[in-house]
Amino acid sequence: xxxTTTLPAPxxxxxxxLKQWGMTLGIVLSVVVIxxxxxxxNENITEAVLASTIRQSTPLVxxxxxxxxxxxxxxxxxxxxxxxLLGAFIGFLVxxxxxxxxxxxxxxxxxxxxxxxxxxxxxxxxxxxxxxxxTVINILALGLTGYFYQVGLTTNGKLQxxxxxxxxxxxxxxPALFNNPPITYAxxxxxxxxxxxxxxxxxxxxxxxxxxxPRAADTLGINVFKVRYVNVIIGGAIAGLxxxxxxxxxxxxxxxxxxNGRGFVALAVMxxxxxxxxxxxxxxxxxxxxSAMQTQLQFAGINVPxxxxxxxxxxxxxxxxxxxxxxxxxxxxxGVPYEKE
Amino acid sequence: MSEExxxxxxxxxxxxxxxxxxxxxxxxxxxxxxxHALLGENGAxxxxxxxxxxxxxxxxxxxFLVNNKVVxxxxxxxxxxxxxxxVHQHFMLVPVxxxxxxxxxxxxxxxxxxxxxxxxxxxxxxxxxxxxxxVDPDAIxxxxxxxxxxxxxxxxxxxxxxxxxxxxEPTAVLTPQEAEDLFRVMRQLTETGVSIIFITHKLxxxxxxxxxxxxMRRGKVVGHTTPQETDQKGLAAMMVGRDxxxxxxxxxxxxxxxxxxxENLSIEDERGLDVVKNISFEVRTGxxxxxxxxxGNGQTELVEAITGLRDVxxxxxxxxxxxxxFKKPRYLVEHGMGHIPEDRHKHGLVLxxxxxxxxxxxxxxxxxxxxxxxxxxxxxxLENAFGLLERFDVRAPGPEVKASTLSxxxxxxxxIGREFSRPLKxxxxxxxxxxxxxxxIEYIHKEIIKMRxxxxxxxxxxxxxxxxxxxxxxxxVMYRGEIVAVVDAKxxxxxxxGLWMAGAQPEKM
Lengths: 341, 509
Fold this sequence. Notes:
Chain A has helices at about 15-40, 45-70, 80-100, 100-125, 130-150, 175-180, 180-200, 200-210, 215-220, 225-250, 260-270, 275-300, 305-310, 310-325; strands at about 160-165, 180. The longest helix of chain A has 30 residues, at about 45-70. Chain A is an all-alpha fold. Chain A has a single domain, classed as ABC transporter involved in vitamin B12 uptake, BtuC. Chain A has a two-stranded antiparallel sheet with strand order 1-2. Chain B is built from 17 helices and 24 strands. A six-stranded mixed β-sheet of chain B has the order 6-9-10-3-11-12, with helices on both faces. In chain B, strands 18-21-22-15-23-24 form a six-stranded mixed β-sheet, sandwiched between helices. A four-stranded antiparallel β-sheet of chain B has the order 2-1-4-5, covered by helices on one side. The termini of chain B are far apart. The interface between A and B is medium-sized, with 26 and 39 residues.
């Protein structure tokens, strides 16, 4: 005899699709409409806005990749900001000392990885509260960089855009997508790569299992601690790269607290993107677009105090997060240290 | 006679945890193709022993032999390599993964750098067919019933070519029908050469399926036997160390006036489903009303509403002639409602608190525990604890230990001690003996009947028919949010109740 199993009422596939993708579609459509409308008014501004969108979104999506590698294996990383900042600073210093940009980027990545190692040690081995662990990193980074920073130093050049042949000449999107400096290209590749690893490989399956049900993974012979360490360290390295982007690609110098909350916005971007790299990319682009529009609106001389226009991207983040967070699946073991016996 | 090749032999294994010896010089043997039951009360060390065999814990002394060869097991991957598979009491499945993903986790099949889910799916369908264990490889685990989840767990072990299968309390989460299904599968597996270690504390099941039985008590093996040599009474005595009443004695009920009345109660849950549909019943003083039903048919929500933890959509509940306000648990506590919750960890106790604090959770703000509503009187709290721990026979080092350190049975006794220490008019006991051993069940049943005899109206909710039948004076059966039948306990049978629980309509209402 079949016993009771209450099945959810059947939902039509169309309704399910709409529920899952409706909001995303709506946002994409409205952005496209805004772009087309703007392009009809002034093409130069449109190209500037799109290029700025990519520029603004790069550190965010890198930060989000760092965050989601950690959280997919159940380590909450609120130290992205600090990992980025220290990466930016060390990368900057190495460039000032050696004049070598490649070496500087490499140094930033290593710095981020070391900060990742520190976070992994605190949260996996010491089983410390992960929020405190992340805060430690943020304060440490802010303190160290503030203390050692000397005014007046500048980098020895910046990473320069590399146009990808005829692709860069495509109207509207060409300059934005195919005429970028190396870290921006690397970001495009990383998003796809991390997405592939997370959802299509053995390592990704194990990472997600460790984030959802570490004991189940353990009973199948998977080393929970190792999976968490590796993911958090790789995440740190990516955050370091985001730091390198700020000093070595975008600005060309270092300022105190130059990350300016990007590490935290990256967390929001990660959640908005439902803990997936492609989703986070979309979210980062949206945020970048809002930031770019905000700059344009300020130039346009609309009679509104600029502070109000300045909050636009943040208001957008809050609205979007408030609308989405409830429906996001957070890895079940997120933030919980694993005890073996 | 040539030496028999044993599937598994455990020799003199000792496992110590800080302060306790979980396994003390345990030895037993598993023959090829047999079902060997490991029987014992909770905390007897059965699960610990199997976790040691499976490599999750490391033993302090002793050794294991697989196929008569000594093996070193340092982790689950070693155990898997030696053909040992384990189905844990709490399933080791990732709820948001598909069946296929869960099956291959840790032993992934790949094509290049990618997972080869298509091949994995095919392999799963093959073994699922070979063993007659039907599963849908694409289903998401959290969407499938527990019985099927268990099947996935068994297949997971078989997928790793397990020849020794450890089943830890496999029937705890199953309906009677699903349990029968499982036993059929177990017998079928032994025919294909798999040897099974079956951990349980349910006597009937052991006699039903086991070839041989090893009984453990307090970390030691107290004896080996077979179903032919013993019966339920004998096994219970071995397990507990004294004679146990399997069915508590009780006198006929002397029902008085109505003390708890539920009228037309309807509840919609968080997902907007009607989980309780227009339910009405009443409980009289001095009687036990049992609500039988498979879990998840609205009992949880019904109890939460009655005990002040949940709001309702319509209907009312009257406690001793006063209509109760919903979501006001303190009102209920002060008006004589006792509640033994379904989940003792989540709702029954504050696990990180000590026993003394847990015992005054309902009354801490009253005299004598708080002076002038403000200052805590530790002396009174401790005295209260000493008294209750003794009266309710809680085996604990003292009132200052944390509730989390106690065994399930003792935790439940702490809850009963707290609830029974107040003057009660109504007692609502939801799954009061879930997961407990026979000794504790006997004790808790006796206490509940004692309450009834003192004139309290008792509402017992249970998915275990045995429990309902041995406690209740009247029985209501709940199915899909409705009460489908109310009968006198004398006038019904297991079979009839089982049919109603599964959705069959009674002929007359």
